[in-house]
Amino acid sequence: MQLDLSRLPYASTRQPLFAERGVVATSQPLAAQAGLAILRQGGNAVDAAIAAAVALTVVEPTSNGIGGDLFALVWDGTKLHGLNASGRAPAGLDRNLVEQHGHTKMPTRGWLTVTVPGAPAGWRDLHERFGSLRFPALFEPAISYAEQGYPVSPVLSYYWNRAAASNREATGSEFRGWAETFTPQGAAPAPGTRWASPGHARTLSRIAETSAEDFYRGEIARTIAEFAVQTGGFITERDLAQHTSTWVDPISARYRGYDVWEIPPNGQGLTALIALNILDGIALNEYPRDSAHSYHLQIEAIKLAFADAQRYIADPEQVSVPTAELLSPHYAAERRAMISEQALEPEPGNPQRGGTVYLCTADGDGMMVSLIQSNYMGFGSGIVVPNTGIALQNRAAGFVLNPDHPNCLEPGKRPFHTIIPGFLTRDGEATGPFGVMGGHMQPQGHVQMIVNTLDYGLNPQASLDAPRWHWDQARRIQLEPDTSQAIVDELRRRGHEVIVAEERGTFGRGQIIWRLPSGSYVAGSDGRTDGYAVGY
């Protein structure tokens, strides 16, 4: 079965990109061009991915930054590799401390939410294993944008304004650096307004020159730790110095004869695989893509998958995660049998034990990269280390405070992580990278992109542009404003609590690159954001 990607049934101003020698797809055109420039200089797909990722910290700071985390899947031409570059809780941060500050659940802002940033080490580790150009060369486009500035794009400006409104409510000395860095004129930049960040440029230059060593064991590390001491934070030089990325074996589920790959826990990619395992036993293509029954079956599968994910996913270095059991055919059949014509209330099963950016790249030699990085919830914790451009992530918000839960906050532990890169293969050959950013939406987006591709034959741009659904909790779902009224009415009849969203921001933003039998590539980039797929 070859991919049938001939269909483009949805109204769109964009056609899929076809290119042969290299492709970069990101949510920001300037970052895509940065990656493409590296490919044209003779860099490979990993070089291009790093260049685009570093540039995104400057040209899309509303979704990621130097102080965030990173996950990546790399197809080296014959094998798929996984990198978990997520950080851990500081040694001084634990459940008792959070409760002593008056919280009954994890907060979403401030020092209690900050984990060690993993992205700089992730860039270095990807380059050390697979890169071909000099590491500093990959930072040149980003440093140029940070030093000289760039005109802010429309969707970026919209989310920047939303963040600015939220951050105005923050008080305390730890938050002063955010406004100084991101609203130096007192407001978020309007579309077309030039924004620059000299501190960001200096930090990126030091990371480039020292292969990230300065960030974890040098001047930058001292600056971060000293600011934490001054403003009531918990991260220390020792926490930074002890950080390491982890090379992992990707996990997969078979769907329609293809293998769908994800990073194993602590990421939530397992959620998408559980749902696809359930759906693989259902002939979705017997129902139209834009039908209530197709929507219903997919939603019910993802609800069951999330119930298990939220119960079992945690840091596998600290607890045992029953990944194999959750992905077993027998367990998928048990969960599939729970789906009926009516919306269910999801509960976790009992398997028997035995604000983010996404980008993808491909080069002419067949190397491909699926990469995602994030600060979480927009700008993250709201804490920016002054004069550095480092917006610190709030990934500790992904922990829980229940001491009996495997994802309970502990020092040195990685939290449940929302960001997930995806990859598709068939019979040991790469089809390509894909991903959808957006917190809770990400595994839901992965399922919808795979279903659109393998059940309904949509090309990458059509798949990304098609209307999406988003499960919130219990029986509540959101549908995009262009969803047909017939689907809305029928889903309500089946017991779903349907909200028709007024805007599309809840539904994520993604990119896809598929390799064609000819060896060329076809790619798309989500119309819900400013980005494009570019190639040559």
Helix and strand layout, with pairings?
Elements: E1 17-19, E2 22-25, H1 29-40, H2 45-59, E3 69-75, E4 80-85, H3 95-100, H4 119-130, H5 140-148, E5 150-151, H6 154-167, H7 176-182, E6 194-195, H8 198-210, H9 213-217, H10 219-231, H11 237-241, E7 246-248, E8 251-255, E9 258-262, H12 269-279, H13 292-312, H14 323-326, H15 329-336, E10 356-363, E11 368-374, E12 384-385, E13 390-391, E14 422-426, E15 429-437, H16 441-454, H17 460-465, E16 469-473, E17 476-479, H18 485-493, E18 497-500, E19 509-515, E20 521-525, E21 533-535
Parallel strand pairs: 17-18
Antiparallel strand pairs: 1-20, 2-10, 2-21, 3-4, 3-11, 4-7, 5-6, 8-9, 9-14, 10-11, 12-13, 14-15, 15-19, 16-17, 19-20
Helix pairs in contact: 1-2, 2-4, 2-5, 5-8, 12-13, 12-15, 12-16, 13-18
In summary, what is this structure?
By secondary structure, the chain is of the alpha+beta class. It has helices at 29-40, 45-59, 95-100, 119-130, 140-148, 154-167, 176-182, 198-210, 213-217, 219-231, 237-241, 269-279, 292-312, 323-326, 329-336, 441-454, 460-465, 485-493, and strands spanning 17-19, 22-25, 69-75, 80-85, 150-151, 194-195, 246-248, 251-255, 258-262, 356-363, 368-374, 384-385, 390-391, 422-426, 429-437, 469-473, 476-479, 497-500, 509-515, 521-525, 533-535.
What this model shows, in words?
- The protein is α+β, with helices and mostly antiparallel strands and 536 residues long.
- The protein folds into two domains: 263 residues, no CATH class; 224 residues, Serum Albumin, Chain A, Domain 1.
- The chain has 18 helices and 21 strands.
- Strands 1-20-19-15-14-9-8 form a seven-stranded antiparallel beta sheet. Strands 7-4-3-11-10-2-21 form a seven-stranded antiparallel beta sheet, with helices on one face. A three-stranded mixed beta sheet has the order 16-17-18.
- The two termini are 28 Å apart.
